[in-house]
Each structure stands twice: as structure tokens, then as C-alpha cells.
Amino acid sequence: xxxxxxxxxxxxxxxxxxxxxxxxxxxxxxxxxxxxxxxxxxxxxxxxxxxxxxxxxxxxxxxxxxxxxxxxxxxxxxxxxxxxxxxxxxxxxxxxxxxxxxxxxxxxxxxxxxxxxxxxxxxxxxxxxxxxxxxxxxxxxxxxxxxxxxxxxxxxxxxxxxxxxxxxxxxxxxxxxxxxxxxxxxxxxxxxxxxxxxxxxxxxxxxxxxxxxxxxxxxxxxxxxxxxxxxxxxxxxxxxxxxxxxxxxxxxxxxxxxxxxxxxxxxxxxxxxxxxxxxxxxxxxxxxxxxxxxxxxxxxxxxxxxxxxxxxxxxxxxxxxxxxxxxxxxxxxxxxxxxxxxxxxxxxxxxxxxxxxxxxxxxxxxxxxxxxxxxxxxxxxxxxxxxxxxxxxxxxxxxxxxxxxxxxxxxxxxxxxxxxxxxxxxxxxxxxxxxxxxxxxxxxxxxxxxxxxxxxxxxxxxxxxxxxxxxxxxxxxxxxxxxxxxxxxxxxxxxxxxxxxxxxxxxxxxxxxxxxxxxxxxxxxxxxxxxxxxxxxxxxxxxxxxxxxxxxxxxxxxxxxxxxxxxxxxxxxxxxxxxxxxxxxxxxxxxxxxxxxxxxxxxxxxxxxxxxxxxxxxxxxxxxxx
Length: 626
Description:
Layout: H1 7-11, E1 25-40, E2 45-54, E3 60-64, E4 77-85, E5 88-91, E6 98-102, E7 114-120, H2 130-139, H3 144-152, E8 170-174, H4 185-198, E9 208-212, E10 223-226, E11 234-238, H5 244-254, E12 260-262, H6 293-298, E13 307-310, E14 314-320, E15 335-339, E16 346-352, E17 368-374, E18 382-388, E19 393-396, E20 401-408, E21 413-419, E22 427-431, E23 434-437, E24 442-450, E25 460-463, E26 465-467, E27 473-476, E28 480-483, E29 488-496, E30 504-512, E31 515-523, E32 533-537, E33 542-547, E34 556-563, E35 566-571, E36 575-579, E37 585-595, E38 607-611, E39 619-621
Parallel strand pairs: 3-5, 7-8, 7-9, 9-11, 12-18, 13-15, 23-31
Antiparallel strand pairs: 1-2, 1-4, 1-10, 2-3, 4-5, 4-6, 10-11, 14-21, 15-16, 16-17, 17-18, 19-20, 20-21, 22-24, 24-29, 25-28, 26-30, 27-29, 30-31, 32-33, 33-36, 34-35, 34-37, 37-38, 38-39
């Protein structure tokens, strides 16, 4: 939960400082994660910062990750191991360097309760009036609340006056900070929230805390937003108080939406972080517009029955209704989605018109088929590729399809999509990778094949052939596999070595179209090593045996427990107990190891028990000479 108890007290800039140690130190920290996306629209720069609030001390540490991790969202509980230098922690290289103890919950798609806290610094006030900010958020003819309602078709809103005091949820406070001090968004937020609470504001009513700062603070960004909104609350920071799309953009980060980027040459590399201006998750300062098709699909605002997935090769014509139209009344799908077979991401094709919150959308996007690429789910940048006019097309030879706009009118756009099957190499494996058998023994190996083709390739036949050592024989359960995209199949190879095969490793393999895998048949006629047996008796009338481990190239499958040469048990552990024999006589216990290839060891040393024939039993003795 992103609400560590000591947060407000710890982060008050006037009362707490964090002194860096003289030298790096190893740390193990457990705490709550806050992930913030910094937005520097002016310089087309962004960075995602991961901050951990240590639950033991309340200190906050910036985590230096070794690689991106999609599990990391605001509100997750982590345990991290690494080296701390001041308030930065570089994670260790081991697999246990970062453990997600509790994942962050996805933000619910419902009424998102937000408060705007306007923080006037000691030497600089926020230039926008409370009424101006309320207009951008709620009371204007167009607002952040209105945008989210329109884009989600009523599924998400940012309602006004949560505290029912008859006023917009905007509170202006004074904080002791000055604009020349180092950029510290968390400390400023804590000061502003403390001041709001002192003024009688119940912050517990709100899921989103939007902190508006003076525009001349020393930070290089225009806004910040927590990535995700798990727990009791999340934050957005805005220092461009007059830009409506910055408010909407940062709340979009709270709702798990990443940036709207461009890749105009469709090479898989982002050309510009914010340059898709058809989406509110692009540049700030552009004005109102809605979200692109990938974000509408990611959030589930366009229902699945209005998203048409193309999964058949060939040429077909599709009619698409406008993206902004109400899905309940549109006669056609609103998103056409095609998987790219090489990279596994998806093409999204949609139609935008100048209406509603898209009334001022650039004509570079309106009345055109807009084409984007996106991972298909999760927090990842969307990439705008092109917006087609009639007769224009986008050709992707690598992925085997062409998208062409045929015509458009006020109600729809017609596109022609030509797809060809571009086969992707299957994933193959052989299991187990190594087995040991005696000469003449049959061993089973399983050859697995997974069809990695895109959906439009349909059913594919994978012939399976095997190569085995000279003199070996084999059978296989099937000559080929018929697999649909994404489906895995298996063929079992039963391989028998010659009866005269010498000890040693023998390679075998199986192959299919686009892949092969190998394994080792190790011939080993040797016996497993003998074990050393230890025995004891107890007053409770038990004989207890333990023994050392046996070894063999094929592994040990069992241990046979013998009494006077007769097997009385077969166990996989290295211990055995039974009640003491009551019939007078001498009883010699031994253990024989059984290897995976079926060979057996010589018997162990014996543990002798002598029974007197009375109820008290007898006693253990020295083993007989062997």
C-alpha cells in the first residue's frame, strides 16, 4: 500500500535531512514502492524513477535497477538487496536482489476521486487561480473529468466535490519551501499534504492527490505521475498549471498508461517519446484530444466485440467505425488488431474524426485510418506509425502484410488488409537431456515442438525425424505433429541400445522444420556403489537402520532392505525402522542400492539383531565377518 505510516513525518523538509554515509554499505530493505514517470515535454525526455520507502525507518531510497521490470508499480511491497550510497541503492546481481512480496493492484476503472492541492511557496505562488484549475479539472465546458468519461464511455470519471462542501476539490496551501531549493517532489508533496490536513481537509477521501507547484521551481519536468495507483492513494505533480492536457496526462500514468510515442519508419525504435499528438499521453500543451486505439484497448474501454482480430491469411476488406463513437450503437468494429509475427506485438488500426474531445485534433490524424503498434497489454509505450488517406498504404514486408485505406465518410473508414503467413521458428526441446541405461535397455525421450507462428498462419504440419547412434534402434509415437499457432505437441522416442554396447555417452537428436534438439543416452553397465549401514535398537522395541548414499550415473531409484537375505522393504529414503523380531534367533539386516538403469549394488555390511524369544526382545550385535 503506497501509504507508509511515517511518510508525512519523515519527508517534512524542515525537520528531516538524510546524511550520506562515508562509504557504500550493504543493505536489505523492505518497503513500499513508488514509481514516478517524469515528463519533460520541452526536451522530449522522460525517466522512470523507482523509490522505496523503507518500512523500518521511513527513509526513502532511489533504486538503480539492472533491467526493466514490468512487475514494478506504485504500491508494490518489495524486499531489495544491494549497496547503498546515501539514498541510492544499486541492486545486487543475484536472483534474490529484488523480490516482489505483494504486487500492486491494478487501478479500478470507476469514479476516480481526486483532490488538487495548490502549493504556494514562500517566495513564489502558483500563477493560476483556484477557479482556473477547477475549470480544467471539472467545471469547464471540457475538463479532465469530461475527457475520461468520454474516452471510457462512462466507465471512468473524476467526479467533483467528493467532500460534499459545495465547492470544487481544490485547496490552496502555503508551504515553507523556496523555488531555489533542490527539486524534491516527495518533500514538497508531503509539506503540501500536511498543510492541507492542518486546514481541515480529509485526504482519506481521495485516491489521487494532484500537487500543483509554482512554474519556476528548479525541476526540469512539466509534470510527474505515479505509475499505477495501488493502495490508499497515488500522486500526480503539475508545474504547468494552465495546461489541461498535463493534468490528464499525469492521471493517465496513475491509471497505468505509458507514453504515446512515434515510430514513423516502423523499425521498432521510438523516434520521439511524446510525438503522437493524437493521444493525451503524448505532448503536454497541445490541447484536448482523446486516447488512441491501443490505450482504449488496454483499458478495456472499447469492448472486445468491437475489436476485430485478424487471424486468417489473405486479402480482406474491413469497415471500421470512428473510435470516439459509442460502442453500443456502432455498426462496425472500432479497432482492427493484427499481431506482428516477428516481434509479437500488435498493429492497431482505428478511425478518428473531429468531434467531441477530438474537435481540435490535428488534421494529420482526422478522417484517416490511424495505425499504431503496442505490446497488447501492460505499461508500455504506444507507437504511432502513420495516418492514411484514401489510396495510401503501409507495407510491412517483414511481418507479411499491407494496410491500405480504400475510402472514408462521416460514418466509417474502409481499409484493405493483405496478410501472408510469415513462419516463425518453433521452440523445440528434448527431455530428459540425459539418461543412463544398461546395454540393451529401452529409454524414452520426449521431443516437444511449439508452433510460434502468428494466428494468421493457421494449422502447420511439423514432420519429426530422429537421428540415433549406429547399432541403436528406436520407435516414435508419431511421424509428424499438426499444430495451430501457440500450441505445443510432443513425440516420444523409445531408443534401445545394442546388447553389446560399451559404456559411454551416445548422442541422439530429433528435428523438425525450423528446429532440432539433442539428448544423451549414456550406456552404463556398472553397479551402484555399496552403502555403509548403521543400526540401533530402542527400549520401545524398534530396530532402526540408516545408511550412506549410493551413487551411479543413472541415479539411485530405490534401496532394498533385506533381513536374512530376504527383501522386507523398498524405500527411496536412507532410513528404515521396524518392530524388533520376537522369535528367538539371529537376524542380519543389509541394504542393496538399485540404480536407475536397474543394476544393483553388492549388499551392505550387516547389522545383527539377536532375539531371545522373550517379550523384552534381544540386542544388537557386531555384524558377522564377510
